[in-house]
Amino acid sequence: MKKVSSYIMEHFWGYLIAVLCLVVGVALDMLSPQLTKLMIDDVILGGRRDILNWLLIGFLIVGLGKCVFMYVKEFLFDVMSSKICAQMRRNLFRHLQGLSADFYDRNNTGELMARVKEDVDHIWDGLSYVGMLLIEVTVHTVLVLTCMYRLSPVLALIPTGAMLFCGILAIFLERRLDQVYGEISEENAKLNTVAEENLAGVRTVRAFAREKFEINKFLSHNKRYYELNMKQSRIFVKYHPLFTLVTKLLPLVVLLAGGVMVMQGEAAGGNTFTRGSIFTLGSLGAFVEYSNNIVWPMEMLGWLTNSFSSAVASNRKLKKIYGETPSIQEEEIPRRLEDVKGEIAFEQVSFCRDKTEILKDISFHVSPGSTLGIMGATGSGKTSMVQLLQRLYDCTAGRILLDGTDIRSLSLGQLRENISVVTQDVFLFSDTISDNVRLGKQALTDFELVKSASQAAQASEFIEKLESGYDTVIGERGVGLSGGQKQRISIARALAKRNPILVMDDSTSALDMETEAAIQKTLNELPDTTKIIIAHRISAVCHADEILFLEDGRIAERGTHEDLLAKKGLYYETYQLQMGGAVYAD
Question: What is the pTM of this model?
Fold first, then answer.
């Protein structure tokens, strides 16, 4: 993970100019009390009206200069912080995209959404408005105290003590808030997860009449989130009145103490010196103005500490994600096949996940252009074989070969780009049907290819009946389409990609027998494509060159449709259940 300081250094000159403008703006603000001192001592008390116009011009120049430099300062801080946070969000998203499937097995979507959105926004605040004010408060305080000590070191001890008191309060406040912000961030992620799951699965919730249960679950997390925010508020409210009390009393105490010093000087005939300087009425006026100037930094300390703690907590969350590394790694110099033919071989492959054995000693060979059928009960490891082929996970024993090359030595990009996978759980994006079909091959610009792939997937008939046809925007995850329609679009997406390997993972389960037969005919007309068909239906795999029947992660039976029927084993039993004892005809 790049440190925040690294991002800042990339925009060093922008921040440098912004800080210089800030310093100039604050310095101009420090001139105003000096002009006030001259106005009181020289014009009002001294009667020098000849310099009045110049002093008024000075006030005008100070005001205009402060406006210009402070505007440039805020503009540059906003621009730089916006660029940095756009980079941070981009880099975080790229890092998330590069993590392996096991990371997403351990982390939910709502939490990751909170990291990408809310936590980056908190850091954004820390780098823009909050960060700018922290620098401004520091510069402002240093310059104000310098000016105060030049006027009266004795009187300056009062605001110095007040600043130290507020600084100690700010440290205590930051320590108390730091832990609370960590808890708020965690609960915010849980709240996002519950909301995201319920909005995505609203139809399931209603189908099982779980509205009341889900509402109560959401309300429990919402209550916890509310309680944590109230805890934060109670801590803030406990300390903030002390900041306010100090800022309200400081000008009054300065005025009283300074007034005594002025009167003592007048009583002594103007011979009272403060480090060689006479403390005049004008000096008192300037000092009171400086004390009013130092009030707002002390008032801001509590709020700034609050916001800065939030940014620090969010940065800590991002560091945790950046600490994750992909479990699936490419070789330093991966091999690249010149022409992928689609020959697949599993050699004594075993796979364990979370100490659970999923596959054991799986071996088979699929020649280019041939078809492999895989059957088995739910949980027998069928889908895991596909995930291993794509290297979403790595096998714990054995090896998988593509065109005679161990896939662990290949580029992940080339491996996955040459495999089209159609899953039972179809994911469609909230976009046009045409763009969803193109998803498999973004460079696909020929609409005729989109149309022909849809026809091959038996999807064109219902698509063309829609009001906008292929330009119809479908809802999130294909809302508004039936399960069979979504599966056909997903099949069209895979066919449009025209890869040498096509995997159908129970992808015709929602189709009627007639549509499934038509798609099977289409698959048979792809002689140069290696096909792996995972299914529960006999009709989906009966034409395969070889059929594997898995049981408890092992190959229990293998052979052609006729061979397996003759064995009268697990495949035969499944056949009897599905066909009702009828003889299956091609």
Answer: 0.69
